[in-house]
């Protein structure tokens, strides 16, 4: 404790020399790292202006700031009753204990003062002026999250270090988490905010303000690209006045200015707004256009769709709406790769594995809406061995238009028989699964390999429909583990390796073979399992081959990011004139209006024999 004269800066012309005793400053309490140097210690005579009050505490801002960008000048004082007789605009002096709090060990600690004791109220009626982010502060960094990620938030191995044990010195100019940490407890304004994703059920919504960003897509979201996962975004949490944020916000909706305090909750840096968000202007148009890719009806231009239909079974509420998407938005592609087809009775956990009722209900609905009269091809899995919702027995399947395509020499493999590439190349089973008893597929979907041909038998191509292991078990992108845990990444590495080797076998037989691998990869194109997949399979990323602009490559929303989990990869022979479109029918709409959590995609290829 220091005892000397202080000049309470906000009290013009008033000096309290000899009357006030000064103790630790807020910036000393926060320090220039993640963890407070005073953690667990008592602090006394801490001066601060009350900038905000919440249901469980108040926020104070130092009246004696330092000049260090790294040390936040504000801090949360956690106590339900402490603020009862105090008001925003009061300058107070308090004693208390510094505490580092987190509700889960996967999270970063929040520095707070607990057991506060009011020493005195110094004065009142001061303005609590928020800092405008990007104007009164530096700009939030736009690419990297933490120095501990070593330049790549998606690098493997994951969880190589922990912020809580390494406790790095903050570099707010370079690292997004450091930037937000350096403003912990601060009252801030986000000017000209717009939404980046749909809110969660509580209305928590990711936003950016009018500061400089990278990765902005044409809808107003931020797309994840290699080494840029958008730490310039911040999530707006529960309003301090008890009001509720809207749950109908969409990516791109204009929200206007948002004022609140910077905190950390549920694994993310958060702004707790003073009051609920308002949608100032809804983004337009409400719905995306249908794909422009329509089948030519012959080998010169066949269309191929891919859609994760999200736990679809014969009795699904969303089956008809899903069918309408396939007809109206995908325009009835000649071949559709579908993922997450459940068995006939969905999540009823019995011995049923057949999905023929699910698929025939889907194909009837499609034809009754004016779409093709699809036939389907798939292989029932072994009960309870494919992961996903218990009892659902999800699998991948093909829908194909029998007026355009047929299976080439059909010979269905079983759930346990491994498909093989025979000379020709031909498939041992058509369709058949890739090495289905391999432990790489434990609790996951086995890729469905098939060969299709035009009805004259002259033009053929190979397909592999994949749905790799999920990202379940991932840790927060702004959590303690660095790089964050990318759940299931090792499984996906093995799964993609097996798939790539199968493709390599086809191309070893015929380097001009036409091969399409599509589906839900549960991974980004620039992360190790997919880098490895591309190298071994020698397939091309269709987004690149068809020149889809990099920032428009997204099929899914997660955290602050628009991102691509669903891909198509093609062999060189399919590259000439290949076209590809992502149809943002689910990412653009409200949470209540989405039919699946993924967007579908459509491609168009020339499959004529050359
Ligand atoms: C810290 O303050 C608390 C009262 O809030 C007191 O009980 C405790 O003894 C103090 N600890 C030290 C080390 O002074
Ligand atoms: C608030 O003020 C009232 C009246 O002066 C007093 O009884 C009460 O103890 C005070 N509450 C707190 C939390 O300081
Ligand atoms: C604050 O701490 C100082 C120094 O320990 C002590 O003298 C004073 O009584 C404390 N005030 C309150 C209100 O706890
Ligand atoms: C589904 O397959 C079973 C036999 O595996 C058959 O009895 C049943 O009729 C089929 N149902 C449909 C709708 O095709
Ligand atoms: C990260 O590793 C630490 C051990 O260093 C472990 O305690 C922690 O649970 C791991 N975190 C996650 C999210 O897996
Ligand atoms: C599903 O389709 C029906 C009929 O067109 C429509 O009324 C309903 O709003 C759709 N549901 C959703 C979630 O879009």
Q: Can you walk through the features of this model?
A:
The structure is a single chain. With 610 residues, this protein is α+β, with helices and mostly antiparallel strands. It has 3 domains: 26-123, OB fold (Dihydrolipoamide Acetyltransferase, E2P) (Beta Barrel); 131-273, no CATH class; 302-605, Deoxyribonuclease I, Chain A (4-Layer Sandwich), CATH 3.60.10.10. The chain is 12% helix and 28% strand. The protein is built from 8 helices and 31 strands. The protein has helices at 26-30, 163-166, 176-181, 319-329, 356-368, 489-509, 528-537, 542-545; strands spanning 42-54, 57-61, 74-78, 91-101, 110-123, 131-132, 161-162, 187-195, 205-208, 222-223, 234-236, 254-265, 268-273, 302-312, 335-341, 375-377, 395-400, 405-407, 421-422, 426-427, 432-433, 448-454, 460-467, 481-482, 515-520, 540-541, 556-558, 561-563, 566-570, 579-582, 601-605. The strands form 7 sheets. Strands 18, 21, 22, 23, 25, 26 and 29 form a 7-stranded mixed β-sheet that branches. A 6-stranded mixed β-sheet has the order 16-17-15-14-31-30. The chain has a 5-stranded mixed beta barrel with strand order 1-2-3-5-4. It is elongated, with a radius of gyration of 28 Å. The termini are far apart. The relative contact order is 0.11. Residues 1-18 have low confidence and may be disordered. Bound molecules: 2-acetamido-2-deoxy-beta-D-glucopyranose (6 copies). One 2-acetamido-2-deoxy-beta-D-glucopyranose binds next to loops.
């Amino acid at each position: 404790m220091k005892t000397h004269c202080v000049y309470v800066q906000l009290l013009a012309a008033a000096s309290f020399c000899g009357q006030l005793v000064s103790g630790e400053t807020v910036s000393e309490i926060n320090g220039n790292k993640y963890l407070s140097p005073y953690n667990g210690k008592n602090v006394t005579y801490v001066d601060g202006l009350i900038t905000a009050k919440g249901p469980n505490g108040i926020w104070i801002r130092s009246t004696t700031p330092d000049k260090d960008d790294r040390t936040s000048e504000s801090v949360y004082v956690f106590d339900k009753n402490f603020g009862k007789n105090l008001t925003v605009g009061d300058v107070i002096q308090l004693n208390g204990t510094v505490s580092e709090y987190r509700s889960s060990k996967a999270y970063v600690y929040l520095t707070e003062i607990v057991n506060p004791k009011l020493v005195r109220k110094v004065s009142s009626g001061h303005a609590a002026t928020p800092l405008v982010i990007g104007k009164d502060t530096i700009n939030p960094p736009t690419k990297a999250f933490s120095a501990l990620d070593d330049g790549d938030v998606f690098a493997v191995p994951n969880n190589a270090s922990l912020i809580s044990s390494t406790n790095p010195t903050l570099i707010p100019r370079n690292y997004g988490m450091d930037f937000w940490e350096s403003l912990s407890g601060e009252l801030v304004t986000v000017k000209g905010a717009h939404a980046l994703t749909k809110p969660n059920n509580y209305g928590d919504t990711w936003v950016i303000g009018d500061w400089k960003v990278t990765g902005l897509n044409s809808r107003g979201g931020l797309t994840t690209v290699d080494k840029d996962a958008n730490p310039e975004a911040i999530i707006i949490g529960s309003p301090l006045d008890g009001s509720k944020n809207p749950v109908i916000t969409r990516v791109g909706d204009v929200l206007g200015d948002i004022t609140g305090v910077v905190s950390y909750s549920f694994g993310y840096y958060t702004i707790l707004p003073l009051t609920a968000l308002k949608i100032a202007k809804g983004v337009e148009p409400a719905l995306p256009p249908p794909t422009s890719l329509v089948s030519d009806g012959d080998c010169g231009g066949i269309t191929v769709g891919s859609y994760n239909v999200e736990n679809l079974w014969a009795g699904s509420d969303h089956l008809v709406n899903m069918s309408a998407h396939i007809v109206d938005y995908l325009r009835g592609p000649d071949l559709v790769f579908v993922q997450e087809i459940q068995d006939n009775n969905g999540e009823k956990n019995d011995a049923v594995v057949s999905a023929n009722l699910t698929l025939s209900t889907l194909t009837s609905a499609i034809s009754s809406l004016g779409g093709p009269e699809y036939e389907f091809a798939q292989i029932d899995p072994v009960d309870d061995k494919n992961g996903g919702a218990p009892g659902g027995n999800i699998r991948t399947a093909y829908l194909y238009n029998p007026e355009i395509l047929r299976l080439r020499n059909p010979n269905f493999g079983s759930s346990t028989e491994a498909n093989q590439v025979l000379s020709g190349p031909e498939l041992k089973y058509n369709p058949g699964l890739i090495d289905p008893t391999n432990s790489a597929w434990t609790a996951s979907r086995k890729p469905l390999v098939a060969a299709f041909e035009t009805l004259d038998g002259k033009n053929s191509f190979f397909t592999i429909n994949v749905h790799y292991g999920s990202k379940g078990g991932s840790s927060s992108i702004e959590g303690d583990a660095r790089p964050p845990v990318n759940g299931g990444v090792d499984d996906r590495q093995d799964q993609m390796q097996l798939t790539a080797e199968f493709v390599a076998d086809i191309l070893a037989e015929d380097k001009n073979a036409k091969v399409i691998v599509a589906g839900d990869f549960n991974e980004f194109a620039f992360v190790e399992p997919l880098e490895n997949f591309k190298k071994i399979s020698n397939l091309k990323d269709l987004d690149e081959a068809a020149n889809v602009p990099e920032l428009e490559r997204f099929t899914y929303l997660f955290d602050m990011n628009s991102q691509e989990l669903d891909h198509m990869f093609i062999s060189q022979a399919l590259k000439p004139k290949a076209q590809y479109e992502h149809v943002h029918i689910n990412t653009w709409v409200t949470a209540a209006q989405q039919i699946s959590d993924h967007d579908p995609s459509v491609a168009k290829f020339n499959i004529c024999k050359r």
